[in-house]
Amino acid sequence: MQKLREGDVFQGKVNTVTDFGAFVDLLFPDGSYPVTGLVHVSELSWDRVYNPRDLVQEGQDVQVKILSVDLDRMRLALSIKQLKRDPLFETLDTLMTNESDDETVNEDDILTEPLPGLAEICQELLKEEGIEEISPGRIAMERRVVSQDLELWLSSAPVQDGNFTLLARAGRQVQEVLVKTTLEREDIKAAVQRVTGRVP
């Protein structure tokens, strides 16, 4: 345990799976598995997990990141999801590509309509503490339908001078939503999750 540091990444083997997570034996360079840590159910996946057994099984090889080392209580907190990108965060370069990109095209001659439900979500976001102003940004038309339902994504870029960008997507249309805020990105994510949970 004394050799372990927060942020270290290890290969491991799932020892036991419970309703609250999975115990993982860490693989050391000498081939032994001397230390066991817990991947809490909330650290298995960025998606909501109803049953850990749907994601991992006993004996499965996994890669984990050390979240904390408690030498007093001999407890080790691990994460699987921290080694993967949070799907709620996207970059503008990924979804708002240049006009020359084969997958996305900005078309002035295509009539765009307000994305269904976006106005209601923006109104609810303005009720959240720390959200000061919301205004529309660029619009792009994708060549492929990503989702018929409205999806709201967050830019992976940090908040800069109180400015942050959301991306709303439905059908082929992508709409930037510019947010003036005093919040940090993680707090914005929490606000978005609260709002999307309230709005049908």
How do you describe this structure in short?
By secondary structure, this protein is mostly beta strands.
Describe it for me?
With 200 residues, the chain is mainly β. Helix content is 13%, strand content 40%. The protein has helices at residues 92-95, 118-125, 185-198, and strands at residues 9-18, 21-26, 35-40, 61-70, 75-79, 89-90, 104-105, 131-142, 147-155, 163-171, 173-181. A six-stranded mixed sheet has the order 6-9-10-11-8-7. Strands 1-2-3-5-4 form a five-stranded mixed beta barrel. The longest helix is centred in the last third of the chain and has 14 residues, at 185-198. It is elongated.
Oligomeric assembly: single chain
Q: Output the strand order for the largest sheet.
A: 6-9-10-11-8-7
The secondary-structure element order is EEEEEEHEHEEEEH
- The total strand number stands at 11
Low-confidence stretches: 97-111
Query: First CA to last CA: what distance?
Result: 47 Å
> Radius of gyration, Cα only, in angstroms?
21 Å
User: Mean of the pLDDT scores?
Assistant: 83
Largest sheet: 6 strands, mixed
Principal-axis shape: elongated
Fraction in beta strands? 35-45%
Q: DSSP helix count?
A: 3
